[in-house]
Write a structure and sequence with these properties.
The structure is a single chain. Helices cover 33% and strands 24% of the residues. It has helices at 14-26, 41-47, 67-77, 94-104, 171-176, 190-201, 219-223, 231-247, 255-261; strands spanning 2-8, 31-37, 54-59, 82-86, 90-91, 110-113, 116-119, 134-140, 146-152, 160-161, 167-170, 205-208, 211-214, 264-265. The strands form three sheets. The chain has an eight-stranded mixed sheet with strand order 12-6-11-4-1-2-3-14, sandwiched between helices. A four-stranded mixed sheet has the order 5-13-7-10. Helix 2 links the parallel strand 2 (31-37) and strand 3.
């Protein structure tokens, strides 16, 4: 019924998270697909040793990580009509995914994300005087559609934050906006862009349910495979590009092109 899609490149946290992801998929008689975007295959094999119900897709020759392209390739290999995109460092309980699925599957006009995550290590980003940071984004288009995003970084007091990248959608709705936009290269806005295009492009309504644990790590791990190491600079550049796309009425991703232009094998 459901495919969990995880993009990966040399992140050892997968060794801790994989069993929980497999258990969540098993509750739906589903599958977990790991898209190895030019990571070390031997390392991945070691992390996944003994895992049942797991499918691995390898994308070679890509020194620059592109999460959106990896997610699109994972969606192409999905056997089921529902897609849950998840990071490799998430500890997910089956009942949380079940609750989100019940919200989203209530009608074809819905997609959804988790309400948030909690860090396994409080103040993992090592804030000093600023202990909480967030923002609110509002966009309205000429055809009357509107988008409101409330996002927050990790709260240093309790380790909680939003989780826009943990997204559940039907494959039909995914394909209606041509998947993720791999033209947005970097860290920090590809997830919000997917929410924006589901809302402003496809006219869908976002649902929220449940929380998961995020295996804490520093910013070096977060951005080391991207062209811009500073996450604030990377996100700002991607947001400006995405906003220009929306202003031009462009709400389409790159799914159809990615599944033909990238070389991959399983």
């Amino acid at each position: 019924m459901l495919s969990i899609i995880v993009s990966w490149k040399n992140r050892v946290e997968l060794g801790r998270s994989l069993r929980s992801l497999l258990a969540a998929a098993a509750a739906f008689e589903g599958e977990v697909i790991i898209v190895n975007f030019d990571g070390d295959a031997a390392t991945l094999a070691g992390l996944a040793e003994g895992a049942e119900g797991l499918r691995i897709v390898h994308v070679a020759g890509q020194p620059q990580f592109n999460k959106s392209a990896a997610n699109n390739i994972g969606a192409f290999h999905a056997r089921f009509p529902w897609l849950f995109f998840c990071d490799c460092d998430i500890l997910l309980e089956p009942e949380v995914l079940r609750g989100l699925f019940e919200q989203v599957s209530a009608g074809p006009q819905f997609f959804g994300t988790l309400e948030g995550v909690k860090e396994t290590v409080v103040n993992s980003i090592q804030n000093n005087h600023i202990v909480s940071f967030g923002y609110e984004l509002f966009i309205r288009t000429a055809d009357g559609r509107s988008l409101r995003i409330v996002d927050s970084e990790e709260d240093a007091s309790d380790g909680s934050r939003n989780a826009p990248g943990l997204l559940l959608t039907s494959k039909k709705n995914f394909e209606s906006i041509n998947g993720y936009n791999a033209r947005l290269v970097g860290w920090g806005w590809e997830d919000q862009d997917m929410i924006s295009r589901h809302t402003l492009g496809a006219g869908l309504t976002r649902k929220f349910f449940g929380k998961a644990l995020h295996i804490s790590h520093d910013d070096t791990e977060r951005t080391k495979h991207y062209p811009i190491a500073n996450r604030w600079e990377s996100r700002d550049k991607m947001f400006r590009q995405a906003l220009a796309n929306y202003d031009a009425g462009d709400f389409m991703g790159t799914y159809s092109g990615d599944i033909t232009s990238y070389s991959f094998y399983s």
